[in-house]
Structure formats: structure tokens, C-alpha cells
Amino acid sequence: MSSVAVLTPESFAEHRSGLKDQEITEDEAYIPTYLEAFPPLPEKGAPGEKAGEPASAWGSKIRPIKASVITQVFHVPLEERRYKDNSQFGEGEEAKVCLEIMQRTGAHIELSLAKDQGLSIMVTGKLDSVMKARKEIVARLQTQASATVAIPKEHHRFVIGKNGEKLQELELKTATKIAIPRPDDPSANIRITGTKEGIEKARHEILLISAEQDKRAVERLSLEKAFHPFIAGAHNRLVQELSQETGARISIPPPSLPKDEIVITGEKEAVALAVNRIRAIYEDKRKTTTISVEVKKSQHKYIIGPKGNTLQEILEATGVSVEMPPLDSGSETIILRGEPDKLGPALTQVYAKAKSVIVVEVTAPAWLHRFIIGKKGQNIGRITQQLPRVHIEFTDGEERISLEGPTEEVEQAQAQIQEIIKDLLVRMDYTEVIIDQRFHRHLIGKNGANINRIKEQYKVSVRIPQDSERSGLVRIEGDPKGVQLARRELMEMVHRMENERTKDLIVEQKFHRTIIGQKGEKIKEVRDKFPEVIINFPDPAQKSDIVQLRGPKNEVEKCAKFLQKIIADLIENSFSLSVPIFKQFHKNIIGKGGANIKKIREETNTKIDLPTENSNSEMIVITGKKSNCEAARERILSIQRELANIKETEVTIPAKLHNSLIGSKGCLVRSIMEDCGGVHIHFPSEGSGSDKVTIRGPAGEVEKAKKQLLQLAEEKQVNNFTAELQAKPEYHKFLIGRGGANIRRVRDRTGARIIFPSPDDTEQELITIVGKEEAVRLAQKELESLVKNLDDVVEDNMVVDVCHHRHFVCRRGQVLRELAEEYGGVAVSFPRTGSNSQRVTLKGAKDCVEAAKKRIQEIIEDLESQVSVEVTIPQRYHRAVMGPKGCRIQHITREHEVQIKFPEREDSSAGQEPPPQENGEVSPEAEFVPRKCDIISISGRAEKCELAKSALLALVPITEDVEVSYELHRYIIGQKGSGIRKMMEEYEVNIWVPQPEKQLDVIKVTGLVANVERAKLGLLERVKELQAEQEDRFLVFKNALRSFKVTMSVDPKFHPKIIGRKGAVISQIRKDHDVDIRFPQPGSDEPDKVTVTGLPDTVDNAIDHLLNLEEEYMLSVTETETLAAYMKPPSRYGGGGGAGGGDDGTGGPAKGFVVRDAPWNAAGNKAPDMSSAEDFPTFGTGVAPKQASAWGPKKF
Q: Which SMART domains match (predicted)?
């Protein structure tokens, strides 16, 4: 990962505005020597020196064994990078994309950023994984171009190949996407999408395939790859002209494809003509010579240029082909091929391009890098402003800084950086200390409070590693003295934490507020008593009882004991009881100025709460120790007795009648109290076992209430006579009868209520009879008679046709188990299978046996009259009809005494229920054709089968649409689906909400008819609530939107122009865009920050407008400076330095460029005659056209 110093237009403008023209006198000017101005090229071996070297291992005939894991390296130039964001390298979209591709393909991908901001990508893995990964990388990280290639329609199938294998192979090989028109599409154009290089490869391969299949003439010329550039010509112009002249299609493999074969297709005459022309070029260029030069690998990219343009320019200018080694090879040899007299100029251009940029490395400790860069890049920014063409790169973890750019500027930048490093090493220091990772968060403190204090106090930088790094190394950097002080404080904190202990106390949450006290006064006293202990109470919303203590071990123990003592006192003093006092006496209990109640509180040490004057409650609540509360109650009751004729009496009523006398929610006892002038009736607490009921109030009213209470108790006693009876649990069902028929007859005859034990009761044999004594005795007698008969076991038999036996014994004897449960545990034995016996034996109580025989006969009659009815319900509804665990079907079979059989589920692939869709159109609704898997069979009596059929059809769910605005769907769904889930559970329906991208204003509700209707009403009610909430939110949101604020950077020198005279311009902008725009005050720390406030859309529009104004002003300034350069007055030498300088007859000729010790000054050499047309021929008339730079147009 590297950090890069970036030159922006703003920083360049600021730098340029700070520069001043420097005047250099003629005497001060230094005249360089010829060798200094034109240094000779370094001497290399003679051309072709390596021709005699033995062939390498790669050229041997033995084919090496292919490795199972391969590595491919390829490059994405800056101009072709899809993501050029300014985020830290390795953290942007490129890294995310590569991570996804690695997970999907299994290949390993490494990215690195070149000095020219191009991207180098290394992919390692198995061949198939590498090819797939490369294709995806190119598609997602490199800008995609597209091109079309036309081949005959009948050749398309050969491009596709068998099962599309050829096309897939071609796409992987070239990392492109190839779209071939459908057979019914008349177009013959094949579209290729991908990088420029990939498109060229794919196009070449497709044309080769087409040429092989073409019935016209196809000519393959195997010509050495080295001569292809001469045949293609610069920028492919020669081959294009040749193709246009002859009409033949010429396919030359791209430079990246190591193939010698050139394919020419077309009409025979055209192909022959093209072949002759190409051979002529080849024969002519074979006479050319070559030279080899060594150039550093790092400089090759400057020779190649953007998209290989520089190589093409050299070929165009000199006719020399420059052969570059592959970028992924280690070779540094460049071969120049061409005419001997042109090789010199071409070589000069190659060296010029290679030496146009140099790279220098400066050694600096890695920990100093951020100080060299400076706060917000100030230090390094100053250098890049002065030397904008120098690229400075810092590499994390490495003790080097790379500088790249023009030689002179790189040397200046190197000197400045070395000066900064020297200064920093003198006044900066660092230390590293190992601290256990568990203490890191305590060192940092809440919101970084501790570490920020240390940084500020000692003027140091402290780096604590992230938890994910699993490292205990803490680094402190800064002033040497501050570093040592900060280290000492950190170690002291660690020492304290090592002796620290955490203890949890369980304290009921209701006591938390009491322990904390009003405004935290009580807990402050505890903290003052134990200053080294941190006491943390849980948030009230958490409903937690855990109070955490943290601090030195001894102090935590002392604090825990102290708090436990407080808690024990609170628990002891939290006893509470209520005393009913007549409302008219409350003011007497309080006393004048609260004297009475205050005295009682102080003397009994209790808390006494009285109801408010407006309250109808008569209860006074006393809280404190139990003994103190009882004493306070007596004191309050004595005051009431003294004030009025209050009588208190006790009535003895059996405890078992208390609940029935109180009634539901106290309604019965409340009616007596209201009827008797508001007397107070107090029942003993439940579970106390006491029979004493206390009545308190005016004497007359107490007697009246006592009489009513005893009368009510007597009625309850009479109607609450209870008797108990023992009977075996297996008899209970028989005593109850089918549908409760037997027990209902007993109840009707006697009027008593008979209670059978529930499955959870411990006494399973106990039957309780409740009611009037006479009725209870009669019911008890009847039940005892029934139980006695059940105890008399008899054995009987009956004849059952063999064909019906299976019905009784199937399903593990379910019917026999039901008979045993229903008829007092009667045992029914059927003969063994295959014995052909019809005799069935029944053993049990006489009445049970008779009833069982009768029931078996009914079942047989049902079987003999049994019919089968089919009901058609689409298979997709079967699960809904069955219900959870088949409960609905079980209910129907029990209620209607039928058997229901569902068909086997049909595989979804065997047939689809919905009608087919063709060409994207929904087919018209076809008549429903039942399938085998849709038919449910019902067996039983005809009339019962019909009832069961109706019950089944009623269970088929229906679907109805409810119109609900798309904007409300997410609120109806709720957080993590909680809202929609609650509605589905409440109404027992299924609610389907369409996908968000469809934006449909409808919600589908599926379920039973009644449930769907209820769900619709509930859904519409919810919609009304949401619409009301939405209106409220909209008002709040609209107000919030108006406060949307964005801060932008605008060069301060443009502020006056944007504001305008007397603020006219800025006022118009504010008015046009309905925003508020604030500029910084003079002397502000951030003079370039401009704040825009308003609605988000209007703020964005206003920012765009301001940026456009800034750009216009910047262009205006640049144009003014450019014009000023031509309007300067002539120099004192009279040269043509300004406009019209050449016309001034008084001035002498321009001095020009002067060097010393030139070759033509040597003896025997004559200087060239500048006035000679032969030595200096003219190139046309007029002003010579401006030559385009090999590096593209200048930016500044």
C-alpha cells in the first residue's frame, strides 16, 4: 500500500501565483560546453552482439511439464482504469471487486499501483480459475470498449462451437464478452465488448474462424512476427489502404498474440493482389538491419507510451520498428529494426523517451514518513507545489521514499526531503512498549478520553493496534522528553489495571434509584468513601439487576460489603401494608401543618403515603420494617377510633368460602361495603389458614354488614356442599360418555356439579361433587352404583365378519384403543390373521362391554354402508387444508366419523400447475383440469362424507388483493418482518408483499374466507395509522431538509468575484437557488470553506453553479497570463522577445542558444552557414505547424 502526493489545479495555481520572474544579467549567464549540452549516449555492445549466444531453455525442443498452478500478470493503464477514486489504495472498489472474484473463482489476486498510476494485476491459481478470474477482472476493473465484426451468417455456428464450448473458450482466452445474433436475426454483425487489446485478439480469432469456413479464396502467409509492423504500417494505415485497394480482408495478429500467420480472405484476384503486395513489402523489409540496446525495465513504459502510441509515432517518423520485450518478462533488451540511415534518429528518440523521467529513492525510517508528509500533507504539499512534475511515493512499512520525474526537479525534491529527514531525526524520538491487549480499551478510555489527554499533555503520538491485529505493541512518537513521560504514565495505568478486580452485585432494580439517591447524592457519598472504585449501574431499560464494581481488589471488597449492608437495610425497610381509613378522617391523621403524620413517621421510622384529596381511595400505605409498620398502623387506627363512633368486630367464616364471598375482582364484598355506609371488610391473607374476617366502621353499619356477610356465607355454604368419590382413571371416560352424554344425564337428574381431575392433578382417581347437600348425596349414590358395576368384570363375545377385522386392528389398533378409552378400559380381542374365525371377545365391566358391543356394531354398519367421495382441491392448497400437524383433518374425521386420504405429492418437475407463458404474455385462463395429485378421497357414510366434503372445501384458502401504497409496504413489514409476522399470526393468514423493485400498490392476503376478511380490515386500519404518521413525519422532515448543509472549498481569491459588487452576484445566486451561502470571515483558519444551506436538491444545484463560476474565473486568469506573455516590451538586447520584435530595425538579431567547444569550432571544421538554404532548407512557406508532443497535449 502506498501514499501518493497529488498535484491539484488549485495547488498549481497557488504555486504559480507565488512565483516571481527572476532577472538574470548577461554577465551572470553561464554558457555550457557542447558535451554538457549534448552528452554522448552510453556505449553498448555492438549490434547483434548476442546473436551467437546459445538458445535458451525456452527454445529447446523438449516441452516442459506444465505446472498445475500458473501465474499471469497483466496491466491496466491509468486511462483504462474504471475506478480512479482518490481513496486509499487497497480500500476502494477495486479491492472489493478482487475479493469477490477471489471468492467466486478460487484464484489468488494481487494488485499493485505503478508509478504512472496504472494497475498491475497478478493472478495465481489453476489454469481454469486464472482464466475465469482474468475475464472477470478485465470486465469489472477495466473500461470496456465495444466493436463489431461482420462475418457471413453461416459461419456463426462455427464461432459458437459444439454446446457453445468454442465461444466460451474464446471469451476466456481474450477476456471479452462476445454477443452473436440469434438465428432469426438477419444481422451478421458480432459484437465484442472488452478492453482494446482483448477486442483485437477476439476479432482476429473470429476472422480466422470465418476465413477457415469461407468458400472463397483463403491465403495464409507465414511471415516473421518482427516484420508485421512494416506490413501493418503506423497506426495500421498501410494495411487499411491495402485492404481498401484490393478489396481483400487482411487479418494480422495483434502485437500481444505470438503468431506469425497473416490470413488474407476475399475474391481470388483480390487475395492474389494483396498477397503479392504483402510479399513485396516483406522482401523489401528483410533487407533492413537491427540494433539491440539495453534500457532499464522501469523505463520501458515511457518508450511504449499510452496504448503503444509512442512506438507508432517512432515508426511513422523514422520507418523503424521498435520491438519491446513482454512486460511480464525480465528482459531489458530493445531491438530496433529498419533502414541503416534511419536507425540513428530512431535510437535517439528511444533514449530521449527513456531518459525523460528518472526514479530516485531516499532512505528514511518508516516511522518518520507521516512527519515528513506533515499535517494534512503540508510539508510534502509544499514540495509538490514548487515541483509539480515530481511524483513522490511513500510505501508503508518500508524505509524508502520514491521520487519520479524530470531529473532536475527530482534532484531538488530529493535535497528538500533529505533536509526534512535530517531535522526530524534531531528533534524526534520514539519508543515501543508491550502492553497486554486486554488493557488497550482502558488505555484509550471512553471516546478516546485517556489517550487524547496523554497526546495533548506530552505532545506525542500514541499508536495502539486494532483488536483485529492481535498485537500488544504500543508505539509512542514525538519529542524525546514527552515520549518518556507518556511511556511512564501508560505503564503506571497498566500496573493499576493489573491489580484491578471486577465484582458483580445482584441488586433488585427497584432499589437502584434509592441507592443512587436524588440527583445521585447517595451514590456520590459511596464513591467519595471509595474513590478508587468505579460503580456502574445498568441502564433502566435493560431490566438488569447487576451492579458492577471495578477497582483495586481490597477496595472493591470493602465497597461490596458496604453496599450489601445498605441493600439489607433497604430490603428490611421495604415491608409495606395498607390501612383503610375513612376519607373524612384523613385530615385529622395528617394534623395541623402535618404535625400528627410527621410525629408518627419519626417515632415509628416509617414512610407513610396518603392518597390525594381528589382520589376516591381510602387506603393509607405504610412502608418500613414490619414491626414499625404494624405500630404505625395501630397509631393511625387509634386516631380514627378516637374521632368517631367506630366499631370493629370479627366474624368466623370458613377459609374455603373466602374467595367465593369476595367474588370476581372483589365485586361481592364491595357491594356489601357500599350498601352498609362504607364499612371496611378485611379478609385474612391467602394461605394464612385463618377464618377470621374483620369488619370496621360505624356501629350500626357494622352490624348490618355482619348480618349480610353471614347470610351470604350461609348461602354459599348450602350451595357449596362437597363430596368426593374414588374411581379408576380408565372409568372416567365411560362415566362421562360420548360427548359428555352420561355425566350430563346425572347432572340433569340431581342438579349437582361433578368435577373430574385434570391430567395435571396429583389425585387422578378423585371425583369431586359440588352443590346442595341433597343433590350431592343423590349424585354420589348414582356414581357409586356405576363404579360398582364397572368393577364387576365379565367376558362376552360377538360375531364380526372377517372382512371388517382389518379396520379395527390397522394403524396399530387405533380403533381398539379408542374403544378401551371410551368404555372403561374394555379389552377387545380379535382372532389372529389367517384363522378365518369371526368370533371377537370383549372383557370388562358389564355396562362397558355392552356399550362397546353396541359401538362395534355401529362401526360395522358404517363400514357396510360406506361410500367413497372424491373432492378436488389443487395440490398447492393441501398443506393449508391439513393445518399444523394435520389438526384440521383430525378434527373433521372425529366430528364426521369419516376417513380422509390425501394423494401422494407429485414432483414439481413432472408438471407445473400454472398455465404456460409464451413470448412474455400470460395465457388466457384455461379450464382447471384435475390431476391425480389434486384428488382427496373421503370414506364413510354418504351423508357424513358430504358434510366432510363441505368442511374440506371451506378450508381451501382464497387470495384477495388489498390496495396499499408502495411507500407504506416497508412500514407494514416492520423491522426484520416483525409487523407482517404479527398480522399473519393474529389473523391466521399469509400476507404477500411484492418485491420493492416492482413498486406495486397491492398486497395479497391468502387464507380462510373469514380470516381474510378480518385481515383486510386490520390491514386497512394499519394503513390509516401509517398515513397519519407519514403526514406528521413529512412536516418534521420538510423542516429538517431546509437545514441540509454542505461545506465546499473555493479559492479565496475568487470570493470577491462570486460575491460581486455590494453582494449583487451572490444575492442573485441565493435567490435563484433558494439557499443560504456563507463565506468565511477575514482571518479565518479555513479561508477557502464556503457553506451552503437549504434543501438537498437546491444545495447541489447551487454548488454546481459556484464550481462553474470558479472554473470560468480560473480559465479567465489563465488566458490573461497567456496574452500577457506576448504583450511584454522588447528586451534591452533588442531581440524579438515581444510582439513585433522582428520588425524593429534598430534591434540586432536574437542571440540564440550558445555553447562552447562545439565540434565545428575545432580545427578543420567549418561552422554551418545559417543563411544557406542548402544547410538550412525551408519546410514550406508560412509558419510551421506545431508538432504534437509524443507525450500528448500539455496540461499547463
A: KH
